[in-house]
Each structure stands twice: as structure tokens, then as C-alpha cells.
Specification:
mainly alpha, about 350 residues
């Protein structure tokens, strides 16, 4: 197996770009089956890819230092960027009257406790938790596999228990138990020679067809992320894996097309994740006020698709700017010659 950490796979860039587009599309208000389809696998896909790309550091100090620079610091920065919008939204939309506690202390405590004011950035917090947990349980090679398997089973049971009792802490904590299995599955994919599939159009089409048929058959029966029965839990994880496999298949097929745009979107997924919710909120609020709507706006599937593409285009110059001047917002650590060289190299 080739070293995935020294080689940049084009199919990963395609998959990440498709996944972040689905995140934007899924955050637009729609009354459509598209919402169920997107939410059934788009975050499992992201965590699966993250697990596949994860490379633990040699020491605990190096691991925590890297995660602090590439995940925790960007997470905090995106809360600060979001904060002015959050203040305006809370006062204009939700008509909140602020005390010092409500306007300063509460959002700080809230964000540090995993309940991000910048909603979509829960993913960054959760990914940080996954990497630290994975490092801790996999540090000893002989116990790595049994502890990982035990963690997957335990997390599913905990989530099942929480759902049945309608207990909910924060989005990040809840999804730590729900989605960590996909991160570990991504790690397991390292032991499969995916290059053997991605380099063959015939095998890529077979892969895509297999997962699409299973996913298409299951999604027709409905989707429930807060599963409370054994059947619902089996369906949830099967949809997550088959939906992710479906996008991987598309990535394998598109692996033959090299695109600088796709590469930049791929390395800029964190920027899109941290900023797009504000753009959607401003757009929704502006249209509702302009059209004097008494209810929250809802887009058609095609209109939401078009808006998602437009937001991606708007975000692209921001990605290029961050790539050159603020690599920390890309999750590449502090701005230094080392990280600039890393971002601009083909193996970044």
C-alpha cells in the first residue's frame, strides 16, 4: 500500500469538494427529500475521509500541539468571525435583549463547551475530539484494534441509549458517539488498496453502482438520525456507509480529471464550513424582508442547488486569500514559510 500521507489523491479532493457543497445545500431551508438524502451521509463522509487522512504524531506532545494549531485555534477564530453576525441576528431576528453575561460570557462558555455559536463548526470540535481519542486508544499497537472495535460498539450503544431517553447535551458531544465509527472506518480504509480501484474506470463504475443501488433502495424507506430502534440504527449506519461509498465512487471516476479549482476548494473546506452559514443567514433574512414574508423562507431543490453553487463561487476568492495570507484558517497551522510551502505543494 502506498503511503497516503506522502501522496495527494485527486479523488479525495473531489470527494471533499462534493461533500462541502452538500453541506451548503443541506443548510438551505428546503421542503424536499434532498434534505434527507444529504443528511443521511454527508457528515459520515467527511469523518470517513478525515479518518483516512489522519496521521498520528510520534509523541502525545506533538499530537496535541498539532491539533491545537490546526483545529482548536481555527475553531476559536471562526467563533470570533461569526460573533458580530451572531449579535445582530440575536437582536434583529430573535429580539434578544443582552446583558454582559448573555453577550460575552455565555457565547464564550458555550463555544468552549462544544456548543458552537457558529453552528457548522461543531464538526471541527468533534474532529478534534476524534483525533485525540483515536491517538489515546491506538497508541499501544497491540491494543489498537480491540480498543477501536470496542469503542465503536460502545459509542453506538451510548447513542442508542441517549436517543431512547431523549437526552441531548450538545450537537458535537452527541455526534461524537454517533459518528466516531465513520472516522475509524476511514482509518480501516488505509488497509485497502483504493488506488487499484480509482485507477480503473471499470472498477470505479462497479464500486459506484454497488453502493448507489443499496443506498437508493434504503433511502426510499426513510431516514432517522435519532434512531430509537435496532432497525433504525442499522438503517442509519448502512445509509451513512453506502452514501459515503457512493461519493467515493464518484471521486474515483473523476480521479482522471485534475482541476486546480477542485484542489483549492478541497483545501478550503474549513473556510467554507466556517463562513457559509453567515452568507445563508444574510440571504434568507434579506429575501424575507424584501418579499415581506410572514413565515421563514423555503427554497425549491433546484433553487437551493443554484444558491449553493453561487455561495461556493463567492467563497472561492476567500479560500485563495487564506491560502496565501491566512493558512491557519485552512487548518494548516500558523502562518509561516513551513506551512505556506505545505499548502502550495502537490502533496499538501
Amino acid at each position: 500500500m502506498s503511503n497516503i500521507n506522502s501522496t495527494r489523491y485527486n479523488w479525495v479532493d473531489w470527494c471533499k469538494s462534493i461533500a462541502i457543497f452538500l453541506v451548503i445545500w443541506g443548510h438551505l431551508p428546503m421542503h424536499s427529500i434532498a434534505i434527507s438524502i444529504i443528511y443521511s451521509f454527508h457528515m459520515p463522509l467527511f469523518f470517513l475521509i478525515s479518518g483516512y487522512l489522519y496521521k498520528p504524531q510520534k509523541t502525545a506532545k506533538e499530537e496535541f500541539k498539532k491539533n491545537f494549531k490546526t483545529l482548536f485555534v481555527p475553531y476559536l477564530i471562526y467563533q470570533l468571525i461569526f460573533y458580530p453576525y451572531w449579535m445582530v441576528r440575536e437582536s434583529l431576528v430573535f429580539h434578544q435583549s443582552f446583558t454582559i453575561y448573555d453577550s460575552i460570557i455565555r457565547p464564550i462558555i458555550q463555544s468552549l463547551a462544544s456548543n458552537a455559536i457558529n453552528g457548522p463548526t461543531w464538526f471541527i470540535y468533534c474532529l478534534l475530539s476524534f483525533k485525540i481519542y483515536a491517538y489515546c486508544i491506538q497508541k499501544k499497537q497491540s491494543l489498537s484494534v480491540p480498543l477501536t472495535c470496542f469503542s465503536c460498539i460502545l459509542s453506538i450503544l451510548i447513542c442508542f441509549w441517549l436517543n431512547n431517553r431523549s437526552l441531548y447535551v450538545t450537537y458535537a458531544i452527541h455526534h461524537f458517539f454517533t459518528l466516531i465509527i465513520f472516522f475509524f472506518a476511514g482509518q480501516a480504509l488505509k488497509h485497502i488498496n483504493l488506488k487499484y480501484i480509482s485507477d480503473s474506470l471499470y472498477k470505479s463504475i462497479i464500486w459506484l453502482s454497488f453502493f448507489t443501488i443499496i443506498f437508493g433502495t434504503l433511502i426510499r424507506t426513510g431516514y432517522n438520525s435519532n434512531y430509537t430502534t435496532l432497525l433504525e440504527s442499522v438503517k442509519f449506519y448502512t445509509l451513512g456507509f453506502t452514501g459515503s461509498g457512493m461519493i467515493l465512487g464518484i471521486g474515483f471516476i473523476l480521479n482522471r480529471i485534475n482541476s486546480k479549482i477542485i484542489y483549492n476548494i478541497s483545501i478550503g473546506t474549513m473556510v467554507i464550513l466556517g463562513i457559509h452559514w453567515m452568507l445563508i443567514g444574510v440571504l434568507n433574512f434579506s429575501i424575507e424582508k424584501y418579499l415581506h414574508l410572514s413565515e421563514d423562507i423555503s427554497y425549491s431543490t433546484s433553487t437551493a442547488f443554484f444558491i449553493s453553487g453561487t455561495i461556493t463561487i463567492i467563497m472561492y476568492p476567500m479560500i485563495l486569500f487564506c491560502k496565501k495570507h491566512l493558512p491557519i484558517l485552512l487548518g494548516k497551522g500558523f502562518s509561516s514559510n513551513k506551512y505556506r510551502k505545505l499548502i502550495n505543494s502537490p502533496s499538501a
